[in-house]
Each structure stands twice: as structure tokens, then as C-alpha cells.
Design brief:
The chain has about 400 residues and is α+β, with helices and mostly antiparallel strands. It has 2 domains: about 1-40 and about 215-405; about 95-205. It is built from 6 helices and 14 strands. Strands 2, 5, 6, 7, 8, 9, 10 and 11 form an 8-stranded antiparallel β-sheet that branches. The chain is elongated.
Length: about 400
């Protein structure tokens, strides 16, 4: 029986795509050595441009309301209430002017004495009415005058109160603007002082950097870890002599790390005159990542059988250290003892240099060495028509051939 290699390659590609196989394992990690130079801080990246905003935030807009609130409208009623009605003498003055000697009245008319008395009385009534009306008019005039005077006094008080309020409001505004100017001047002075201080520190750092490296860290790491590998995008060549795939890797490891610090150059010996060592445990993670891998196969024929030789190329796996080696160096108690000057600069309040020292080995690429292997396919015997047949695998350039004899 013969199977085309191209067809078999397509079938294997499809099988891997559906299965999405993964391998998981854990075990010891062989000792790895490392070496890295720690440069002195480079101040070129320090930006001393002031970022502080000195725009005054104090609001000096007057908020005091000086609008008068009192009501100066007079409330009294000056309408006269006295009664000045005109009285009239209405008595009847008719009388007999000429009497008949023998009885009766010859001539009738108005008694002149009565009419004179009546006229005098009515003139008196008219004078009383005029005097009453004069008193009412005078009382009304006096009342209206009092109301006007009261209103004028009220309006005067309101005007004076408003003027005093406006004076105080303007005084508050002027005082606020004065404080505002003082705050801006103080802020600008502090900002300029910070810039000068920053430029001074930057110059010192640049001068320090010119002296060379701070030191060299040598060490080794070993431990135990676990790794998960999942295979994606598997593709067999049509000749079945090469396999390409993507490996999704993740995992973690606990490493025992040994450090040795050796000062270098002029700056290094000035800042850290003594060597020192440290031993620490670091937790290392394998961040989820996709790695391209390549597997090659070759065939060897011996004694009529086929043996396959395989080789998995080197796999670079990225590791992430937590805590980072740099933090372990800076926080190690041996560091301030061996490097008192550097420790003072890095941890001091004046020059915070720790963020400017480059991280080393924080993200490290661990390379799995190439793996070679060999295998000889051993097909199990098959029973055909009561006979045991031992299959034998061979191949042509285009197909795999399975044959057998009883």
C-alpha cells in the first residue's frame, strides 16, 4: 500500500489544526551564568524644563452685592378726615307787615330784622367752613412734607450704605489682586529655583557618567520551573522532510540567583570601592508568547529499514524577573556598605538616580538548546487471512509505501 506524501502532509496539518495539542512539564532548570555591566547614570534624558503652572487661580471678581434693599416708599395717608360741611340757616322770616285795625293782616312780607339776623348767621357759617378747609389743607401739606422728608432721609441712608459697600468691595478686589500677584511671583521664583537645581544635578550626573561604568554584575541562576507549550499553525512540507509551527509558551520558575558585584572604571571605584556578593531567590514568569519553531527530518536506510533523524532548532523563550535584578542590587544590605557614595546619591533626596540606572536582565531571553532525536517506525504485525504479516515501511520521493510478508 502506498500513500502520497503530499496527501499525508495535508492530513497531518488538518489533524494538528483540529487537535491543538499542548505539552506540559516541570523539572529542574540547569545552572545558567550571566554577566552585565551597570553604567553610571546618564543625565541626557533629564528634562529640566519647568512644568509647574504659575497661572493664578485666585478669583478676584467681586461677589459682594451692594444693591440697596430698603423700601423708602412713604406709607402714611395724608387725606384730611375732618368734616367741613357748610351749615345754612333756613329759618322762615315771613311776617305781617301792616295789620288791619279791625283784625287781620293787610300786608305780608319778610321781616327785615329776621333776614338780617339770618344773613349774619349764614356768613358766620361760611367763615367757619372756610376756616375748617384751611386747617385741613394746612394739615395735609404738613403731612406730605413729613412724608417727603422721611423718604429723602431713607434714600440718603441707602445711598450712603451703597457707597460704603462699593468702597469695601473695591478694597477687597485690590487686596485680592495684590495677593494674586504675590503668589504668582513666589511660584515663578520657586519654579526658577527648581530649574536651576535640576540643571545643577543634571550637570553632576553627566559628569559622573563620563567617568565610565559603575560596575559589573556576574552571577548564576538555577532552580525549578514548569512550562506549557501549545502547538499552532503546524505545517508539514510536501516531502515530509521539514515541519514548521508556532509554539505558544507560558509558565513560571523559582530561581536561586547568586550575584557578584565588581566596581569598574574611575566612577565605579569612586562610588563603589568594594566588591560584594549576594544570594537571592527570584520568581520568574514566562509571559504568554508565540515562538516560531522549525523541525527537520532526514532518513537513513540500514539493513532494509528506515530510521528518521530529527532536529528541533533553538527556541528563544522570554523570561520576566520579579523582583528585577536591579532592585535586588539596590535593596541589598551589602550595597550601601560597599557603595556608600552611590547609595547616598541613589537613595538621597537631592539626586533620585535609581530610575535613571538601566534595568539589566529584567526581561531575559532564555534559549532552549537545539534538540536532536531519532526513531525507527515499528509497525505492529497484522493478521490477514489467518496469517501474521509484519508490515515494512519504505518510501519513494513522493509516497510512503507499506509492504509485508508472512
Amino acid at each position: 500500500m502506498a500513500v502520497g506524501k503530499a496527501l499525508l502532509a495535508q492530513s497531518l496539518d488538518s489533524a494538528f489544526a483540529q487537535a491543538q495539542p499542548c505539552l506540559e512539564g516541570s523539572g529542574p532548570i540547569p545552572e545558567e551564568t550571566f554577566s552585565a555591566k551597570i553604567p553610571t547614570p546618564d543625565g541626557s534624558g533629564i528634562d529640566c524644563t519647568p512644568t509647574r503652572d504659575c497661572t493664578p487661580s485666585r478669583d478676584c471678581a467681586p461677589t459682594r452685592d451692594c444693591t440697596p434693599t430698603g423700601d423708602c416708599t412713604p406709607t402714611g395717608d395724608c387725606t384730611p378726615t375732618g368734616n367741613c360741611d357748610l351749615h345754612i340757616d333756613t329759618r322762615d322770616c315771613s311776617a305781617c307787615l301792616v295789620h288791619n285795625p279791625f283784625g287781620g293782616c293787610v300786608v305780608r312780607g319778610n321781616d327785615p330784622f329776621c333776614e338780617a339776623s339770618k344773613g349774619t348767621q349764614n356768613a358766620a357759617y361760611a367763615a367757619e367752613k372756610a376756616a375748617c378747609e384751611g386747617q385741613k389743607s394746612a394739615a395735609k401739606t404738613a403731612c406730605e412734607g413729613q412724608k417727603s422728608a422721611t423718604k429723602a432721609a431713607c434714600e440718603g441712608q441707602k445711598s450712603a450704605a451703597k457707597a460704603d459697600c462699593e468702597r469695601i468691595k473695591e478694597q477687597d478686589r485690590v487686596d485680592c489682586e495684590r495677593l494674586k500677584s504675590q503668589e504668582k511671583l513666589q511660584c515663578e521664583t520657586e519654579k526658577e529655583g527648581q530649574k536651576v537645581g535640576c540643571e545643577t544635578e543634571k550637570g553632576a550626573i553627566i559628569a559622573l557618567h563620563r567617568t565610565g561604568n559603575l560596575g559589573n554584575v556576574d552571577g548564576s541562576a538555577a532552580g525549578t520551573g514548569s512550562l506549557r507549550l501549545c502547538f499552532h499553525d503546524v505545517h508539514f512540507s510536501d516531502a515530509l522532510d521539514k515541519l514548521t509551527l508556532s509554539v505558544a509558551a507560558s509558565g513560571s520558575a523559582a530561581l536561586d540567583v547568586h550575584f557578584k558585584f565588581v566596581p569598574l572604571d574611575v566612577g565605579g571605584h569612586f562610588l563603589c570601592p568594594l566588591e560584594w556578593t549576594a544570594d537571592k531567590n527570584i520568581t520568574t514568569s514566562v509571559p504568554p508568547q508565540s515562538i516560531g519553531a522549525s523541525l527537520s527530518l532526514s532518513r537513513e536506510y540500514a539493513s532494509g529499514s528506515v530510521t528518521y533523524q530529527g532536529r528541533l532548532d533553538e527556541l528563544p523563550i522570554k523570561l520576566h524577573f520579579q523582583p528585577s535584578p536591579l532592585s535586588l542590587v539596590l535593596q541589598n544590605p551589602n550595597f550601601p556598605l560597599a557603595c556608600p557614595v552611590a547609595a547616598g546619591l541613589i537613595n538621597g533626596l537631592t539626586l533620585g538616580l535609581a530610575p535613571l540606572i538601566p534595568e539589566f536582565l529584567k526581561d531575559y531571553t532564555y534559549k532552549l538548546k537545539p534538540v536532536t532525536f531519532s526513531f525507527a517506525p515499528d509497525l505492529p504485525a497484522q493478521s490477514i487471512f489467518g496469517h501474521s504479516v509484519k508490515p515494512k515501511l519504505s518510501e519513494t520521493p513522493l509516497a510512503l509505501v507499506v509492504s509485508g510478508v508472512p
